[in-house]
Amino acid sequence: MKKILALLLCLSMTVSVLAGCGGSNAPAEMPAADTTAESEEPAAEVEAPAEEASGEKTDVLVWLFSADNMQSYVDSGFVDRVNAAFPEYNVKVEVISGTAADMETQYNAAKMSGAVPDAMYVALTTFASFGTRGEWLKLDDYMNGWEGMDDVMESTLNMCKLSDGYYGIGMAPAPSVFVYRTDMFEAAGLDPEAPPTNWEELADYAQKLTIKDAQGNITQGGLDIPSIDTYLNVMAPFMRMNGALVVDEAAQEPLLTDPKVIDTLEYIYDLYSKGVSLPHDWQKAETVPFLNGTSAMSFMNLDQYVKLIKEKEELKDVVRLASPVGNEAVASFCGYRMMTIPADSKNPDAAWDVIDFIMSKEEMQIRVENQGVIPVRESLTPVYESLNPEIGDKVMETVAVGKGAFIVPWVSTLYKYYGPAHEAIMQGVKTPAEAMEEAQQSILAEIG
Amino acid sequence: MSKKKINQDRVGYVMIAPYYIFMIVFILLPILINIFLSFTDYNLNTMTFVGLKNYTRMLQDPILKRSIVNTLLYSVVTLVLNMGLGLLISILVLRTGKALGVIRTIVFLPYVISMASASMIWLWIYEPGYGLLNSIITFFGGVSQDWVYDVELAMGCIILVTVWKFVGYNMVIYTSGIMNVPAQLYEAAMIDGANVWRQFQYITWPMLRPITFFLMITGFINNFNVFEQVSILTGGGPVNSTTTLMHQIYIRGFVDYQFGYASAITVLMMIVVSIVTALNFRYGSQGQNTDLS
Fold first, then answer.
1. Nearest Cα to Cα of residue A166 among A338, A334, A336
2. What is the pLDDT of residue A259?
3. Complex ipTM above 0.90?
4. Which conformational region is residue A301 in: left (phi greater than 0), alpha (psi within -120 to 50 degrees), or beta?
5. pLDDT tens digits for A298-352?
6. Best mutation target, B44, B150, B230, B261, to test chain A (most A CBs within 10 A)
7. Residue B86 and residue B107: Cα distance in Å, rounded?
8. Distance separating alpha carbons of residues A172 and A337, to the nearest angstrom
9. Which residue in A has a C-alpha nearest to residue B149's C-alpha?
10. Which residue has the higher pLDDT, B202 or B282?
11. With an 8 Å Cβ cutoff, are A228 and B45 in contact?
12. Is a pLDDT exceeding 60 seen at residue B1?
């Protein structure tokens, strides 16, 4: 009897182990807020064939991530509206919490388990890096007849292209704005109504705004210059201000040894070595001096500015947005969030219908009015500016001259070699010319 | 062999089957898949067989070479500090008597914090502008440092975090080992006139060899897998001064989507860890047969 019991126990344990290893038709588990028209439905039904899941209706799974107050937008009744507009579809939305990188991880997991969404909201970096490895469906056939083509900003449409056509549609710009502290300007004897507009003024102001103690320790930085800027969020706009391309996207070629790139980095290093900035990593908000109140000027994500003002109301009258700075040209960083259709989508036509609905003027106006999202339709620009009288014009100026991640298949290779090269310059280990030459050669060697 | 013996064996095999199935599916199979992937160019979409290309590429990859040097440096320094300080603190704690529990708890406390949380705490401590460390230094009139942003200091900062977190674990293991040394050995040594150092040299240290061996093996493997503190505190910088093998595997796999190359680095790492572990078993376990009779 004991033997039989032992055998049964072992068998049950073996079966449970094997069950754990086996494939499953259930969708990948995600830390997501699942907002569906019929949220009481079991999650497994999301993956079920359309006819089985909801009669004649076609299931359309949409992934959004929590940037741009998307959770609030979804909660405002988006799912009901889209399902009412398309009675033949059963649209389900999942808002993935976390960053764009978390979204990438979730997508990879979903792809491995064959459960990719039909439409997906992604950051520009994800759009570029995933798009160049064939993850997105080409949208030219859909976009050629789309009514929004005449209204959506040209700069937005340019961001939606990969090598041979449209693979996404820009839904919300994510600009990096130039911010400054009026109280620190006044304390330094500078006019808070006249922030710097060119490199000469920027360098002059940065030095005047810097405060050091008797030992030479920086107690207030004049301008945030990141010692770590792996993704060129701050440096690429500076290079473009100086007339450099940085990357020739048409020829698919890095241009880090362009004299204008070197000049830019010499200008930046000259300022940094004068001690106008505390060292920090631009990607880590908790290290950015301006956000910690220890710097007078900075370039930061609009989201970070909005969050700062929301958390510290006393800064509302002190922190201001300025127009983008220029040298040979005016330039800024402007990321984008895009809607894409994964190449493995089971219902691409239905997915496009949902994207069309999301991009409609009415829905975009809801996001502009309720979630504070920047519109990409020119017809809604006045609405945004009237709703944001203090910052609206500066934000739109920044978007107009903004450019985000470089759309090349080897963008991660660019970051991998530019990042350490930038750090070597800031550490004084290499000159800008040496560091850029080495980075350029390493990139060329790797991309072939 | 009798029928009864064969039946007993069958029951035994069935009883150990769940563990072995688990091990095959979750350890052996992934290792074999990883070795297979190391001969391919796989990016989640397409897979091409490339032979030994990933391995030859490793020979010409300056960042990988830097990561190997960094990993070895980190592993050895951290191991020596963790074990040395762990042993020292355990001896000092045992000699303090009454405060044993309190000190042991304080030193052990960081071990129960997750490495991600610990790294975030230290990120704040190292922050150049308002961080705790620079605040203390400037309070006493010193010059603040850039810590994790300084190419000369960054690796030391990471090692310090690891030592802070794991020294308590080493201390606890050593303390239990020292407490298990038979008291009569010390009594006999004292009668023979041996001082404290001689007692440590000829009794404590030889008796702790099995524990030291255990801590060395597990510590080395743990150190070789260092990732979280690198990712959170420095991201491998500045100028790749803190990038490690595990960090490179992550970057190549999940940032560059070069899973074939990442798998090849994993194979290299597996070989290195296996060799060091084998050497430790061969030479590190000598002297475990201390005769107490």
1. A338
2. 97
3. no
4. beta
5. 999 998 998 899 899 899 889 999 999 999 999 999 988 999 999 999 999 999 9
6. B44
7. 9
8. 5
9. A279
10. B202
11. no
12. no
The structure tokens listed for B200 are: 């440590």
Residue A161, pLDDT score: 87
Q: Give residue A10's pLDDT.
A: 53
pLDDT of residue A2: 61
Q: For B172-198, give one letter per residue: b (16+ CB within 10 A) or e.
A: bbbbebbeebeeebeeebeeeebeeee
CB contact (8 A) between residue A105 and residue B130: no
> If we measure between CA atoms, which residue out of A297, A343, A337, A341 comes closest to residue A320?
A297
Interface test with A, best of B11, B14, B53 (most A CBs within 10 A): B14
Whether residue A428 has pLDDT greater than 80: yes
8 A C-beta contact, residue A119 and residue A355 = yes
User: What radius of gyration, in Å, describes the C-alpha atoms of chain B?
Assistant: 24
- Closest C-alpha among A218, A227, A276 to residue B235: A227
* pLDDT value of position B93: 83
pLDDT computed for residue A40 by the predictor? 35
The alpha carbon of residue A400 is apart from the nearest alpha carbon of chain B, in Å, by 30
> What are the backbone dihedrals phi and psi of residue A58, each rounded to the nearest 5 degrees, phi first?
-100, 125
The pLDDT value recorded for residue B34 is 96
Residues A175-204, mean pLDDT to the nearest whole number: 96
Is the Cα torsion angle A279, A285, A287, A292 positive or negative in sign?
A: positive
Dihedral of CA A32/A34/A40/A45: which sign? negative
Sign of CA dihedral A306, A204, A240, A126: negative
Owner of token pair 């830390």: A31
pLDDT tens readout for residues A265-303: 999 999 999 999 999 998 888 889 999 999 999 999 998
Chain A's closest residue to B150, CA to CA, is A427
Tell me the sheet residues that pair with B97: none
Comparing C-alpha atoms, which of B160, B159, B125, B163 is closest to residue B144? Answer: B125
CB contact under 8 A, A10 and B138: no
Nearest to A417 by CA among A285, A247, A241, A284: A247
Q: Output the 3-class SS for A130-177.
A: HHCCCCECCCHHHHCCCHHHHCECHHHHHHCEECCEECCEEEEEEEEE
Q: For strand A58-65 and strand A119-123, is the pairing parallel, antiparallel, or unpaired?
A: parallel
* Cα nearest neighbour of A111 on chain B: B44
Give the CA dihedral A304, A307, A308, A310, nearest 10 degrees: 160
- Whether the bond into A31 is cis, omega within 30 of 0: no
3-state helix vs strand vs coil in chain B, percent to 5: 75, 0, 20
